[in-house]
Amino acid sequence: MTTHHHHHDALGHHQCVRLVPIFNHLEDDQMNEIMQVAQSRQYKKGEMIYMAGDESDALYIVSSGKIRIYRLSESGKEQLVRILTPGEFTGELALFRESIHTNYAEAMSNTQVCMITRADLQEFLLKYPSISLKLLQEFSNRLDQSETQTTRFATEKVDTRIAYFLSDLMEDEGGSMIVDLPMTKKDMASYLGTTPETISRKLADFEDAGYIHQISNRKIEILDLDEMLMV
């Protein structure tokens, strides 16, 4: 199969490598080197990028669109792990060992990713150690998030989990009192270990109590953070 390099693909590559915190600190010529080996792939909404059980041998970087990463519990219940937006990546475990995917990655909208194989990436890690440091930073952030998440699951009731979720969003948006829910109620429920009905009910309770104001389905104004976190 021959691949034709279209102009927009090169651009997609460019953008893709520049967007990513693990690469965007490199010199231009170093970034160009990485772009030479990155392959561009398009996925339609609902298409799977990989599935649990697939062999994992590449890093996938989102250059446009969104990917949801989820896993299935033993009983077959879906648990949302994270949602990736442009500049974020998945498949990182492939970098260090030959492995099988344990998660599912699904395009939430039309999505463009660029892919770098394990062999290529390992070469860059040795050549430009700063990439390794950035990767470690990203890993430790993820570990921290997942430990926080686990602790909340084990110790907090669902009201509190929702309250912290909203407060984390505020922090992500630089302390803005108006936050956009980054996912549907269904995904939020899966992420917080509850049902969409409970999420809707609790948000309504928060609104009645004067903690929040639901501007629209996906926009929420936080009126009283401290009180909300006390629930």
UniProtKB/TrEMBL annotation:
<dbReference type="InterPro" id="IPR014710">
    <property type="entry name" value="RmlC-like_jellyroll"/>
</dbReference>
<protein>
    <submittedName>
        <fullName>Crp/Fnr family transcriptional regulator</fullName>
    </submittedName>
</protein>
<keyword id="KW-0238">DNA-binding</keyword>
<keyword id="KW-0804">Transcription</keyword>
<dbReference type="Pfam" id="PF13545">
    <property type="entry name" value="HTH_Crp_2"/>
</dbReference>
<dbReference type="Pfam" id="PF00027">
    <property type="entry name" value="cNMP_binding"/>
</dbReference>
<dbReference type="InterPro" id="IPR018490">
    <property type="entry name" value="cNMP-bd_dom_sf"/>
</dbReference>
<dbReference type="InterPro" id="IPR012318">
    <property type="entry name" value="HTH_CRP"/>
</dbReference>
<dbReference type="InterPro" id="IPR036388">
    <property type="entry name" value="WH-like_DNA-bd_sf"/>
</dbReference>
<feature type="domain" description="HTH crp-type">
    <location>
        <begin position="156"/>
        <end position="226"/>
    </location>
</feature>
<dbReference type="InterPro" id="IPR036390">
    <property type="entry name" value="WH_DNA-bd_sf"/>
</dbReference>
<dbReference type="InterPro" id="IPR050397">
    <property type="entry name" value="Env_Response_Regulators"/>
</dbReference>
<dbReference type="InterPro" id="IPR000595">
    <property type="entry name" value="cNMP-bd_dom"/>
</dbReference>
<feature type="domain" description="Cyclic nucleotide-binding">
    <location>
        <begin position="22"/>
        <end position="142"/>
    </location>
</feature>
<keyword id="KW-0805">Transcription regulation</keyword>
